[in-house]
Design goal:
Elements (H helix, E strand, L loop, with lengths): L1 H10 L3 H14 L4 H13 L3 H14 L4 H13 L3 H14 L4 H12 L5 H14 L4 H11 L6 H14 L3 H13 L6 H14 L4 H13 L3 H11 L3 H6 L1 H25 L8 H10 L8 H26 L1
Helix pairs in contact: 1-2, 2-3, 3-4, 3-5, 4-5, 5-6, 6-7, 7-8, 7-9, 8-9, 9-10, 11-12, 11-13, 12-13, 13-14, 14-16, 16-17, 16-18, 17-18
Length: 321
């Protein structure tokens, strides 16, 4: 009864009372692995990761082959950047159930971040597709993985096109384009731009699509068009706050391509300026303008200047080659 109350309270987002209910349930049924698992999920939701891990491991002590608990524990490890332990948890799941296609996908994602495990990542994505040929996410990330090898670009594009055939929503078109742009997969940048443009036609108000479109144009050296597109997404404070590192990276690259003054003007005139203060100070320093800033902002802005200069040097080396 207490366990049922716990689930009802959890679904109602009354987390404090849900925790009390689960702990009361454990007084009566301390050997019930499901209650331990549900308590772990609740604590996980509250970002009490150490407590959640204890609950998950208690559940696994009682039922070592419980896939749901192993999955929860694996995701917890990912949130903590404990990727080796996450790999162990998800690896255990596919030992128990080799047909768990979504777990193969997660393993593919984990392994694709390790240069020494690229072949394992490819095998994992292919295993997921063997189980579910219509898994558009596995097709997408397999394509992005293959695109890292210049000799497999045709195969990569085939996978990405197949993923889009399965899911041609604006959201998916933008997601694929964004990954190509972010990873600077140069041969596929024209395709990324095309997909971003199609996404914008389908959803012209999407701020995320506006950003990806602006970045794709910049990567393709269409700087004036990129600058114009910038005036769209920079108006969204929420987008800038949620994607701060990507936004800063974009503006650093734009500045390094000879548009530091224009970049500064756009940011200064936007409602997002208060969230980009170190970038603004950095741009002013780069442009040799008089600057007064608190010490902590000054240090970050110096890093901005350094990154712009490094990007300029990289661009110059590429042109010289």
């Amino acid at each position: 009864m207490w366990a049922i109350f716990g689930k009802i309270l959890y679904e109602s987002r009354d987390y404090a009372q849900a925790e009390n209910a689960y702990r009361k349930a454990l007084e009566f049924s301390p050997e019930d692995h499901e209650i331990w698992r549900d308590l772990g999920l609740l604590l996980d939701q509250l970002n009490r990761y150490s407590d959640a891990e204890i609950s998950y491991k208690k559940a696994l002590d009682l039922k070592p082959d419980d896939g749901r608990t192993l999955c929860n524990l694996g995701m917890l490890h990912i949130h903590q950047n404990r990727l080796v332990e996450a790999e162990i948890a998800f690896g255990r799941i596919v030992e128990i159930d080799p047909q768990a296609s979504q777990i193969w996908f997660i393993l593919g994602m984990l392994w694709s971040e390790d240069a020494h495990k690229i072949s394992r990542a490819e095998s994992a994505f292919r295993k997921a597709l063997e189980i579910d040929p219509k898994d558009s996410a596995s097709l997408e990330y397999l394509g992005l993985l293959l695109a890292k090898d210049s000799k497999r670009l045709e195969e990569a594009e085939h996978c990405l096109n197949a993923a889009i055939e399965l899911d041609s929503t604006a959201e998916n078109l933008e997601a694929i384009a964004h990954e190509i742009v972010k990873k600077t997969i140069t041969p596929l940048l024209p395709r990324a731009l095309s997909w971003a443009q199609k996404a914008q036609q389908a959803d012209p108000k999407s701020v995320s699509i506006q950003f990806t479109l602006a970045f794709a144009l910049l990567k393709l050296n269409r700087k004036e068009e990129s600058l114009s597109a910038t005036r769209g997404f920079i108006q969204s404070i929420d987008f800038v706050k949620e994607n701060l590192s990507d936004v800063i990276e974009f503006f650093i690259e734009l500045a390094a391509n000879g548009y530091a003054s224009e970049t500064l003007q756009i940011i200064d005139a936007s409602p997002s300026q208060t969230h980009l203060e170190p970038l603004i100070i950095g741009l002013r320093k780069f442009l040799k303008m008089d600057v007064k800033a608190p010490l902590e902002i000054g240090e970050v802005s110096d890093d901005v200047v350094k990154r712009i200069q490094e990007r300029q040097s990289q661009t110059k080396r590429v042109k010289d080659d």
